[in-house]
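Practice record 12: protein with arginine.
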Amino acid sequence: MINFKELIAKEISKNVDLDEKNIMEFIEIPPSKEMGDYAFPCFKLAKTLRKSPAQIAKELGEKVKFENNEISDIKVEGGYLNFFVNRELLTKEVLTDFNNSNELYGSESKKDKTILVEYSSPNIAKNFHIGHLRTTIIGAALYNIYKFLGYNAIGINHLGDYGTQFGKLIEGYKRWGREYNVEENPIPELTKIYVRISDLCKEDEEVLEACRENFKKLEEGDEYCVKLWTWFRDVSLKEFQKIYDLLGVKFDSIKGESFYSDKMDEIENILDKSGVLTDSQGARVVNLEDKGLGVCIIRKSDGSTIYATRDLAAIKYRADTYNFDKCLYVVAYEQSLHFKQIFEVAKYLGIPEKCVKGLKHVQYGMTRLPSGKMSTRNGTVIEVKDLLHEAITRIEKIIDEKNPDMKDKKENAKKIGIGAVIFNNLCNTLIKDQIFDWDTVLSFQGETGPYIQYVYVRCKSVLNKFEKIPQFSDIDFNCLMDDSSQKVISNLYNFNSVLNNVIEKNETSYLTHYLIELGQNYTEFYNNNKVLVDDENLKNSRGYLSYAVQTVIKIGAKLLGIDMPTEM
Ligand code: ARG
């Protein structure tokens, strides 16, 4: 498709002393269509040209020319130069492209770039908490979008399945395993055992010693310890899988921290050879004080490695295996220091420079309840599986009231309920903490998942009234020249660039906002323009536009992980 913004930037650059790239950054989208499609703020030039922005706009407006009439009008408005895209050309471009690509509209061809996206990464034998839900949803969305844009994306689940706590859990299970119903209810029961043994360790040094011994044995491959640990891992994964199935989330690689246990010596050796390892009270550390990052422990004084060591081993392994261009860690902002440290130390691992540069912590904020922070003690922790099921049951209730005769009620309630939770996790600037409030999340109005689905279903019901879905060959571009049709068409035009914004900033809210805007503009279009009119040309053209909107909503939502219901 024609890149109108680039075209404008190119033309302006011929007439002013600024390069195209800078101009691209300055060009804005005016707040309303009446003002134009693109605006160049001339006060950016006022200082160098020593003229008033209005004067610059006036002069520049007379100079810029678009040979093929891509821009139909240019207006000076205060210090701004406003450009109006040729509507016919835009409409033709967008709908031709849509006709050619359909469900792949907005996608890009294969690129020779590998992007690793690490998300979810819960800890086995522990609760999958609401923070894990958030990384799972964000990571899966980013993964889908990278793929759609042609990148070789690899989804990785870096399971927390290693550490001295497993020595404790083994000891606890050895002592009291039969008292607990781990088989039936693995995670809560294992948690109870863990709490009990930890308490005992605090009182009894000998028990603690036994736990350490267990972990050592586990590392050395002792049959009994490995068997128990494998079982803890299996039952936990099975539990997590239930959540992944509900969300429709997949991974290309599930590798736990344990996978790196035999790769730590190598990391220590490399860092030692690089000369960055120092001894500190018996521990081996990389001192990052001069960068304000404290020290990064590589090996503790008792000889064990830590979370950071395993992360460094994972970086090396991933660089060797994938030679990645980017490796994104979708992890809560609380771990920000940890990632700053390991990314700094990664410079000494001898991996390609591009891999070091490609390491990126994609941070997200906390989820709170309207009543405050969640806490185990107050019983205000929400079980993720329960939360997802509750979303579905709540939607079922709403459907029973609104549309009791709905077909596929169960399937649709699942798509709406889960979709609502997913959308809610993606629609605010990720770094911000968010409040989880059922009424907002499940509302059919406002910036919500159900709203998007509602617009989709409306498009669908319009199209159901056609004998057959209107074809590209049936449309007349002239029927779509009014403001409200054009707003929808410029939304469609922007779809690909919005997706690119998402991956540039690793910020999913660009896409959620986009879908809301598309939904609102389609609603306005629908209210202003009757679709099912007698005039065949008009009817087919508006019908085709509805079909394009329906498809783009479906594509965009699917990228976020949200499926469309058949009815609402
Ligand atoms: N398992 C960790 C947790 O639940 C998150 C792991 C994040 N990923 C990483 N490579 N450190 O807190």
